[in-house]
Amino acid sequence: MSETTLTTTAQALSPMTGRRVIDPDTYFDHNKAPSNLQWAHTSISEFLQKQPSDQRVVLITSGGTTVPLENNTVRFVDNFSAGTRGSCSAEQFLALGYAVIFVYREKSLQPFNRHYSESKSGLLSYLEVSSSDGQVRVKSEWQDRIKRDLIMFQNYMAGNKLLMVNFTTLSDYLFLLREVSLLLAPLGPRAMFYLAAAVSDFFIPSYSMAEHKIQSGDGDLTLRMNQVPKFLSPLVKKWAPECFVVSFKLETDPDLLGPKARHALGKYGHQVVIANMLDTRKWQVWLFTREEQAPHVIQISQEQLAAGVDIEQDLSIELARRHQAYVTRHSK
Amino acid sequence: MSETTLTTTAQALSPMTGRRVIDPDTYFDHNKAPSNLQWAHTSISEFLQKQPSDQRVVLITSGGTTVPLENNTVRFVDNFSAGTRGSCSAEQFLALGYAVIFVYREKSLQPFNRHYSESKSGLLSYLEVSSSDGQVRVKSEWQDRIKRDLIMFQNYMAGNKLLMVNFTTLSDYLFLLREVSLLLAPLGPRAMFYLAAAVSDFFIPSYSMAEHKIQSGDGDLTLRMNQVPKFLSPLVKKWAPECFVVSFKLETDPDLLGPKARHALGKYGHQVVIANMLDTRKWQVWLFTREEQAPHVIQISQEQLAAGVDIEQDLSIELARRHQAYVTRHSK
């Protein structure tokens, strides 16, 4: 019986002279920039130029990244993330007066549109042909809600308070993250990073990937994946050292939550880790900082959850408050 | 340096007494049915009861399946498939008078809705607030097209000619495939199977899966995946032996296309394999049968492609013609 081995550790690491986890810089040398990188650079630059000099700006990343298993991609590893946290938080930060750069996984949830993405039968299920004038319009039961979201969405877009940039793969995401970081760096403390995207921890380097679709043959498949370098490190230390950085830890094992959050703060030296559990993330999060011994708990009740209250409202208010204090502290 | 090994071949196969590729029946014993299985059973039964006695029925499967890497799923392997082939084919078979059971990956393209799923800003980008009556309606440039699709969609649904059933994981898909097959079997030659979904070839059995999110630690990740049993075999031989079955082969290496299509026909004994290449699948497919030496080529020109012609139109007409001949042959 054959066993298909996609890549060996030795092959995968050959250009890195034996290091197990490669440099972030090396990663960029060995992977291809996404096709929208130049567009993103120009759009973000123009977006920032249009902001008042004291405007708070937040970068929100949202959705999961994919890791291709083949160069001609048929299969990929994906991270679970509908993009609820990120898209909902974007609405909240806009309401708090922030300008929002929303970097999201294509087809994940988007601010304002997110409420109309879960229907089983798509766009058409919200529409009807009017019996009076024959025009296609939104069904009456959806009119008020969609009108409110449509007007907010259009106003934020027209007022240059919301910019949306999309990605699909891990590589797309990392190139865009570096680009936005370098463009936000000059804003110093005024810029917040809210890194809610679910980024893959493992990848197969492009040069050691299978060229064609992996054949199933009659045996098992062994995939060896390399660890993705931790990009929070260059982000905090080099790309945007004066900005206010919030990262996320999603776990399924409650015993790991605190230790992993504290470890990240110690290792990267950024401002906040939001820890959350896969099962309870919609109503409970823990906010960790280097200064505080105990985490700050944010939670909403089951009644609030059922009534449609988003925990991101309290979370964004708390972060905006801490961001304000950070700006004040660093402006002296 | 540590290396995380998710599962060993020995562990993964322990309940199968040493066989590398498990029985389809064993698969169902060891995996959990999807939550919509009972609903699907009832809905499909009722749908079929409402059809005239000579109604042609086609099962169309569409979109890719996911394979979870953890029991508390954060990561999964996915197969590339937007669902274009399946959703477009559903429209074509409806136009040809078929009743369509559309089994699709959640969030993949759906018939009629598929034209309005690629917009970067979602539902809201198709809408405007009318300046005359303040109602939210479809923008004038989209009125005609959306109206046509909306009316067709509503008519097919109201007329019991289209039923939609959704899945996400490989396991969901396989349970639903068996269920629909057993329900379609009594129709004999009148039922067509059009298996366009991109189904994973490899999986990690639930009982040998990591319980929690895999930790990245400081090393590589090795994933050992078992081969998925070939479900076309029980489908053709046991579940629905008299039906007309069309399977698909998607490849990226052109040299494998013919040999793999012929191998599948020989192995499973079904009626048609549609072979296609990842790069050219939108304008060229090859139709293989056991009876014919050379494949029947279906293709459209680049001009047709650019003008919005779907190759699925010619493909469905050709298959309906062959299905008609099959029905006639088996009714004597």
Tell me the layout of helices and strands.
2 copies of one chain form a homodimer.
Chain A: E1 4-5, H1 9-13, H2 24-30, H3 37-49, E2 57-62, E3 66-68, E4 75-79, H4 84-95, E5 99-105, E6 127-129, E7 136-138, H5 140-158, E8 162-167, H6 170-184, E9 191-195, E10 202-203, E11 221-227, H7 232-239, E12 244-251, H8 254-268, E13 272-277, E14 284-288, E15 296-299, H9 302-306, H10 311-331
Parallel strand pairs in A: 1-11, 2-5, 2-9, 5-8, 9-12, 12-13
Antiparallel strand pairs in A: 3-4, 6-7, 10-11, 13-14, 14-15
Helix pairs in contact in A: 3-6, 4-10
What do you see in this structure?
The structure is a homodimer of 332-residue chains. Chain A has 332 residues and is of the alpha/beta class. In chain A, 36% of the residues lie in helices and 22% in strands. In chain A, a hairpin with a 6-residue loop joins strand 13 and strand 14 (284-288). The model of chain A is unreliable at 1-19 (pLDDT under 50). Chains A, B: One of its GO terms (molecular function) is ligase activity.
